[in-house]
Amino acid sequence: MPYPYVLLSAAVSLDGYLDDTGPERLLLSSPADFDRVDEVRASVDAILIGAGTIRADNPRLLVNAPERRAARVAAGRPEYPLKVTVSGSGDLDPGAKFWHTGGDKVLYTTDKGAERARGLGLAADVVPLGPDLDWAALLTDLHDVRGVGRLMVEGGGTVHTQLLQQGLADELQLVLAPLFVGDPEAPRLFGPGDYQRGRLRLVESRRIEDVVLMRYEPTAPGAGPSVTAADRRWMSTACDLAALCPPSRTAFSVGAVVVAADGTELARGYSREGDDPVVHAEEAALAKIDPADPRLPGATVYSSLEPCARRASRPLPCARLILRAGVRRVVTAWREPDTFVADADGSGLLAAGGTDVVVLPEYEARAKEPNRHLLG
Ligand SMILES: NC(=O)c1ccc[n+]([C@@H]2O[C@H](COP(=O)([O-])OP(=O)(O)OC[C@H]3O[C@@H](n4cnc5c(N)ncnc54)[C@H](OP(=O)(O)O)[C@@H]3O)[C@@H](O)[C@H]2O)c1
């Protein structure tokens, strides 16, 4: 995976505030929910907060339960997750608890912010990311350089808003607390801006004492070549569908999902689905959608294997079916090998027809799994 799995975690009042404006941090969660948060912290490789939260709350950001820390160590992990913060200015209090508790710390900042932070002698690895703070570069560094597979983001609202708007959040864990703040000066969880248009998927709701935990997953595909966390999840679904294909020695097992720009699933399919022994996954999915559906030009086709460019079993290959349907974005995990057709280039055909083709190589192994017997 090029990025860690990004889990946003926050508690809000009934009127959508993260805090009040008083000098003390407003406690929104219940004791049992604080313990759940501690458990989530213990499960991740790194925890991130913004500089605003360090200034407002001066948190330590630890795994508090000794048995959870012991379990991490027993599993060969550091006792505490890596602590990560972001600041454009680099203007941070070197005496804040964040720097002096727990395990390793890293500050991602701008070139200017790094100059200032280094001058302050912060007890952290200071990483400049250029003139501006680039979240994609930050996540890549966490993943590639620091081996972070799961990142928990504990706010504040400025940080959560950007990660959600940029399609970089895999999951939102939101706790709703039964109280009101009512102060327009207080910080809100999400600010204005450009969010995914459609509905997120609710994957869990759980009562914890007097608060409710809701877990949501973003669903909207990226645009053009840019990849969202939801793209990866849909590709994972396509790989799950590939595993449902009736086995064959003469054709690949492939899964496909068609998703509208607002994250609505339009159809899904897989090779040899139903009573059709030669149907391809993309063909099976597209056949379930009204060709006049106005969402098709903005939709994305996820296919675990690159759509075919040539086939003997039908007049039109899948790449042409996709172009005919008007879809202009395809995400795939794996380019077609020469097993049945030499030099198949479905991606080239799609690109020549004006379609963006995005390859997610991190799913290649899963996409190949049901085809292992064909690959030698
Ligand atoms: N209820 C909850 O679950 C919860 C959780 C966390 C926080 N909170 C509350 O949230 C409030 C703080 O939220 P906040 O939105 O003010 O702050 P924040 O999101 O914690 O941090 C914002 C700061 O992070 C840096 N930053 C973020 N994105 C950046 C970018 N793209 N480029 C450069 N720098 C960037 C900037 O630091 P510089 O200013 O140094 O440039 C910015 O001022 C506090 O009241 C806290 O209590 C509540």
From TrEMBL:
Class in the EC hierarchy, top level: hydrolase
InterPro entries xref list: CMP_dCMP_dom, Cytidine_deaminase-like, DHFR-like_dom_sf, RibDG_C, Riboflavin_Biosynth_HTPR
Catalytic activity: 5-amino-6-(5-phospho-D-ribitylamino)uracil + NADP(+) = 5-amino-6-(5-phospho-D-ribosylamino)uracil + NADPH + H(+); 2,5-diamino-6-hydroxy-4-(5-phosphoribosylamino)-pyrimidine + H2O + H(+) = 5-amino-6-(5-phospho-D-ribosylamino)uracil + NH4(+)
Pathway: Cofactor biosynthesis; riboflavin biosynthesis; 5-amino-6-(D-ribitylamino)uracil from GTP: step 2/4
Signal peptide segment: none
Molecular functions (GO terms): 5-amino-6-(5-phosphoribosylamino)uracil reductase activity; diaminohydroxyphosphoribosylaminopyrimidine deaminase activity
GO biological process: one example: riboflavin biosynthetic process
Pfam family, one: RibD_C
Record keywords: NADP, Oxidoreductase
Name used for this protein in its record: Riboflavin biosynthesis protein RibD
Species annotation: Streptomyces brasiliensis
